[in-house]
Amino acid sequence: MSAVTVVSAGTPDRRRAAHPARALARAVLRPHQSALWFWGLLVALGGGGLLWAAGPGYDAVWDAYLKSNCREADYCDMGPAYQHYDLVVGLAPAALTVAPLLIGAWAGASLIGRELESGTAKLAWTQSVTPARWLAAKLAVPAALIVSGTVLLTLLNRLVWWREERLRQAVGTRDWFDFTTFTGNGTLATAYALFALAVGVVAGLLLRRSLPSLAAGFAGTAALMVVLQGNRHHLWPVAETRAAASEPQWTGMLVDRGVITASGDRISNSLCAEFDCGRSDVVGYWAQSHPASHFWPLQLVETGIVVAVTALLVPAAFHLLRRRTGGAA
């Protein structure tokens, strides 16, 4: 009898221990239902569009290509089928690229800044929730939703990219190094989204007001994206090709090209108004590029940088919270 009593008495304890975590997660989501609906709608529409593009959308485009004169003509017109397909496969990676900017602005303004400005956060700290648990929930719950959405859309982007390989080879529809395509087809979309969440949280804790935190979250996210995108070609060694009589052929992302003089000097064409830089001692030409095989090295190196910066911002957020609460976090 006593053993039964002990076991039955322990069950409610486990339920009560699990309940605060669920309640805290609900408390995080409740004030942000509009943002949750927006994110869910974005993922649903993007995912549905990409599934259509990977199936009947692509099939219709390929049929239109086979029935057209694209293989013999310089200009390829595949009609409405390709226009609809191109709209979907262009918008989906673009949405993944823009999403971190929106996440950074939302995290700064609504997730943290507004609650500190209105005193809602301080009220929560006076209840059973410690400041550290409050901030951990503010980071963990949105992060779980963000990762699940971005990973799903990235995988569907990859599916479409795999299916349309024949079309790209036939008419050159998209390049792997295009800004939105590069971001939406790998690990970067998720990494930038988590970075934006961390930037917004730090901005909210620093500024403690919604509108300035919104601007700071947006600007901080945009700054890193612009800097890394502008220097992406430096993140991995380039492949170089040379030719003696004419400009060498390259594949993929062109980084730089130029001429080689008789003295062995290498001059970039970007510094000249003419192709041969107006020199009579040109003995060869060179070109530096990133071929398609560099997609994953470039992707993973940039992702590593973004993740490293995010990993620094998270403990910085807890440090700021401890300073604000006088070490009570």
Task: Note the main attributes of this structure.
single chain, 329 residues, 10 helices, 69% helix, disordered N terminus
Sequence-ordered SSE layout with sheet pairings:
Elements: H1 2-29, H2 33-67, H3 79-118, H4 120-126, H5 131-163, H6 165-171, H7 179-184, H8 188-207, H9 210-230, E1 239-243, E2 253-261, E3 266-268, E4 282-290, H10 295-324
Antiparallel strand pairs: 1-4, 2-3, 2-4
Question: What is this entry, summarized?
Answer:
The protein has helices spanning 2-29, 33-67, 79-118, 120-126, 131-163, 165-171, 179-184, 188-207, 210-230, 295-324; strands at residues 239-243, 253-261, 266-268, 282-290.
The average pLDDT score comes to: 85
Distance between the termini: 44 Å
Total domain modules: 2
Shape: flat
Q: Supply the helix-strand structural class.
A: alpha+beta
Strand count, sense and closure of the main sheet? 4 strands, antiparallel
Overall helicity? 55-70%
Helix and strand run = HHHHHHHHHEEEEH
Main sheet strand line-up: 1-4-2-3
Number of helices: 10
CA radius of gyration: 26 Å
How many strands appear in the DSSP assignment?
A: 4
Q: Report the uncertain regions.
A: 1-18
| Strand percent estimate | 5-15%
Task: Tell me what you see in this structure.
This protein is an alpha+beta fold and 329 residues long. It has 2 domains: 43-70 and 77-234 and 294-324, no CATH class; 239-291, no CATH class. It has helices at residues 2-29, 33-67, 79-118, 120-126, 131-163, 165-171, 179-184, 188-207, 210-230, 295-324, and strands at residues 239-243, 253-261, 266-268, 282-290. The protein has a 4-stranded antiparallel sheet, with no helix packed on it. The two termini are 44 Å apart.
